[in-house]
């Protein structure tokens, strides 16, 4: 199975990116700082690395320089907010394959991952990306719930994955994703999304 590493000091960002990568078939590990990332990278190889540029103690730029010095060849995607785009561009000039500016949509994430996978495999297949429908209000949630009740989890997943990109801290989206994956028999994903729902539910109460 393809393996990915997500490095970000913000837990919700790590969780969101991990779920996005898992939905694309990756086995994901995550690190909350540069030291944890270095330890994981010393232990095993990864097919792709998502690296946040702005972290305390050790920046993403410093981690990337260490990766280069160690001869680690996995493609690195720099994730960045607007304020650190300049740093992200510098990393791409040093060898990072791309940078992903936050916030980003699930469609943009999928497009970027596919571009990288095609570049690695040497494929020249062109794809047309159709934006996913967006959940904008409670009525849209009712549509998703009806899809689940009518045994149509695939349709629900399309809405929910896009909703997650727009509102990655909403526990209800994670709960519905758990229900959808359970409906299609993917108990591992169902449990992970339910755990994520509980994490964000607790955070809302703090």
UniProtKB/TrEMBL annotation:
<feature type="domain" description="Response regulatory">
    <location>
        <begin position="3"/>
        <end position="117"/>
    </location>
</feature>
<comment type="function">
    <text>May play the central regulatory role in sporulation. It may be an element of the effector pathway responsible for the activation of sporulation genes in response to nutritional stress. Spo0A may act in concert with spo0H (a sigma factor) to control the expression of some genes that are critical to the sporulation process.</text>
</comment>
<dbReference type="InterPro" id="IPR011006">
    <property type="entry name" value="CheY-like_superfamily"/>
</dbReference>
<dbReference type="Pfam" id="PF00072">
    <property type="entry name" value="Response_reg"/>
</dbReference>
<dbReference type="GO" id="GO:0000160">
    <property type="term" value="P:phosphorelay signal transduction system"/>
</dbReference>
<feature type="modified residue" description="4-aspartylphosphate">
    <location>
        <position position="52"/>
    </location>
</feature>
<dbReference type="Pfam" id="PF14559">
    <property type="entry name" value="TPR_19"/>
</dbReference>
<keyword id="KW-0597">Phosphoprotein</keyword>
<dbReference type="InterPro" id="IPR011990">
    <property type="entry name" value="TPR-like_helical_dom_sf"/>
</dbReference>
<dbReference type="InterPro" id="IPR001789">
    <property type="entry name" value="Sig_transdc_resp-reg_receiver"/>
</dbReference>
<dbReference type="GO" id="GO:0003677">
    <property type="term" value="F:DNA binding"/>
</dbReference>
<dbReference type="InterPro" id="IPR050595">
    <property type="entry name" value="Bact_response_regulator"/>
</dbReference>
<keyword id="KW-0238">DNA-binding</keyword>
<protein>
    <recommendedName>
        <fullName>Stage 0 sporulation protein A homolog</fullName>
    </recommendedName>
</protein>
């Amino acid at each position: 199975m393809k393996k990915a590493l997500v490095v970000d000091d913000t837990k919700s960002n790590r969780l969101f990116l991990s779920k996005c990568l898992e939905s694309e078939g990756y086995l994901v590990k995550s690190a909350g700082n540069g030291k944890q990332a270095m330890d994981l990278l010393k232990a095993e190889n990864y097919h792709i690395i998502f690296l946040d540029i702005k972290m305390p103690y050790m920046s993403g730029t410093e981690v990337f320089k260490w990766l280069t010095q160690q001869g680690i060849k996995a493609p690195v995607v720099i994730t960045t907010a607007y304020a650190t785009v300049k740093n992200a561009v510098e990393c791409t000039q040093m060898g990072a394959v791309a940078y992903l500016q936050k916030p980003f949509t699930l469609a943009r994430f999928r497009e970027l991952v596919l571009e990288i996978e095609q570049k690695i495999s040497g494929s020249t297949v062109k794809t047309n990306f159709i934006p996913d429908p967006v959940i904008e209000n409670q009525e849209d949630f009712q549509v998703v719930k009806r899809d689940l009740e009518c045994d149509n989890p695939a349709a629900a997943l399309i809405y929910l994955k896009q909703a997650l990109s727009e509102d990655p801290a909403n526990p209800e989206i994670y709960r519905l994703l758990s229900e959808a994956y359970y409906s299609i028999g993917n108990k591992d994903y169902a449990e992970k999304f339910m755990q994520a729902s509980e994490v964000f539910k607790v955070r809302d109460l703090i």
